[in-house]
């Protein structure tokens, strides 16, 4: 009797183009983990026309194009695919139910999901349905001496990183922050098995109906990938003054980040939130305007290579952390810097 190979599953979160690299990043890490427990890496894709979703120019896999081809090219040994018109729009209930049924049938060791807005909602429901644990928002994954998945998750307001294992329940589940791992280069020659999973006939009706959806316009680079990030905090003073940071970021070919009070005040979108509850950034240069430097924010900036902070308080934690600390009014300094840069460009 052949023994079934252990499996690490990565959920294919491709719906939001701006977030979709996280699946590729997880496939890459899953490959490294798979070596340690002798497992295969599988992507799980639910949707409609999933083999045509990505622009053709991105997909040269001779067998499968679209996201399926992308996941194969980026490391999936196998893809479980349910492609059906009913799955064209994401439905938490339906997607979680499909994942539960598939997982009960195939019994993967590990399920990894990107900690996107979508992934966070989805994974917690799947874990509940499967009666297993879930470590949310992990910033590291490893395999310990007992072959268990070590799920590294920030805790106590980001002051500690907890190493969590799931010794008894299966699968072991984690959501992982985008930008935590690097994706492996694509290999469009790679072949892999695609398992078509039919939509169950007894699927209950969705209780939620999607009426309309609209894609957010893309401003530029994703903040997680930007080489320059111009981050602003409450010390910028107002929404109007904060808007200057967008002009500065454009001049520097960078992206704008924000602290939580700024996002709550609607000076910036939630997408710009940097910190424990937002994005992890790793720019070459980080500008920090009017930011106190609370741990929940700075924990996500530790990989910045060079930090320039502007604050009227020289003792602010962010000023201590900075390579260059400028004591000034944040908004006025930003205006002066914009003028100076424009003068240099002219
Ligand atoms: C569970 C939890 C999760 C959290 N997650 C996040 C997160 O993901 N990201 C995040 O950012 N926060 C997060 N927070 C909130 C965090 O603790 C801080 O409250 C927040 O980062 C502070 O934002 P800030 O620096 O903009 O504001 P403040 O702390 O109010 O600091 C404003 C700074 O601006 C300076 N300043 C004021 N006026 C001027 C001026 N005219 N010119 C120059 N400087 C000036 C002040 O000296 C001060 O240093 C979280 C908190 C909790 C409890």
Description:
Helix content is 28%, strand content 23%. It is of the alpha/beta class. The protein has a seven-stranded parallel beta sheet with strand order 5-9-4-1-2-3-10, sandwiched between helices. α3 (92-106) packs across α4 and α6 packs parallel to α10 (330-345). The radius of gyration is 22 Å and the shape is elongated. It starts with 5 loop residues before the first strand and ends with a helix. The model is unreliable at 53-63 (pLDDT under 50). Bound molecules: flavin-adenine dinucleotide.
What is the straight-line distance between the termini? 75 Å
Strand order of the largest sheet: 5-9-4-1-2-3-10
Strand content: 15-25%
| Ligand list | flavin-adenine dinucleotide
Unreliable runs: 53-63
**Taking all residues together, what is the mean pLDDT?**
89
- Described by the principal axes of the CA atoms, the overall outline is elongated
Helix content: 25-40%
What radius of gyration results from the CA coordinates?
A: 22 Å
The count of β-strands is 15
| Continuous helix count | 10
What is the helix/strand order? EHEHEHEHEEEEEEEHHEHEHEHEH
By helix and strand content, what is the structural category?
alpha/beta
Strand count, sense and barrel status of the largest sheet are:
7 strands, parallel
């Amino acid at each position: 009797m052949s023994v079934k190979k252990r499996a690490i599953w990565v959920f294919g979160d491709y719906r939001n183009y701006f977030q979709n690299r996280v699946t590729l990043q997880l496939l890459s890490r899953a490959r490294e983990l798979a070596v340690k427990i002798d497992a295969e890496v599988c992507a799980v894709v639910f949707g409609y026309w999933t083999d045509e979703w990505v622009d053709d120019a991105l997909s040269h896999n001779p067998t499968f194009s679209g996201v399926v081809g992308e996941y194969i090219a980026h490391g999936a040994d196998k893809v479980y695919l349910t492609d059906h018109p009913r799955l064209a729009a994401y439905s938490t209930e339906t997607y979680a139910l499909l994942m539960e049924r598939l997982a009960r049938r195939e019994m993967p060791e590990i399920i990894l999901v990107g900690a996107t807005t979508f992934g966070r909602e989805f994974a917690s429901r799947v874990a509940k349905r499967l009666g297993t644990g879930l470590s949310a928002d992990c910033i590291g994954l490893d395999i310990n001496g007992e072959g268990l998945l070590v799920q590294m998750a920030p805790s106590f307001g980001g002051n500690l990183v907890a190493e969590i294992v799931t010794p008894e329940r299966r699968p072991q589940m984690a959501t992982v922050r985008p930008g935590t791992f690097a994706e492996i280069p694509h290999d469009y020659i790679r072949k892999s098995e695609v398992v078509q999973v039919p939509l169950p006939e007894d699927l209950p009706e969705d209780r939620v109906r999607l009426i309309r959806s609209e894609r957010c316009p893309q401003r530029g680079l994703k903040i997680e990938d930007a080489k320059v990030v111009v981050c602003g905090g409450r010390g910028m003073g107002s929404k109007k003054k904060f808007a200057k940071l967008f002009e500065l970021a454009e001049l520097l070919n960078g992206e704008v980040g924000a602290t939580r009070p700024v996002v709550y005040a609607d000076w910036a979108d939630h997408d710009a939130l940097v910190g424990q509850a937002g994005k992890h950034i790793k720019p070459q240069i980080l500008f920090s305007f009017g930011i106190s430097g609370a741990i929940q924010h700075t924990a996500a900036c530790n990989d910045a290579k060079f930090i320039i902070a502007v604050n009227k308080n020289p003792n602010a934690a962010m000023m201590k952390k900075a390579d260059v600390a400028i004591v000034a009014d944040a908004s006025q300094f930003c205006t002066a810097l914009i003028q100076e840069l424009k003068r240099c460009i002219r």
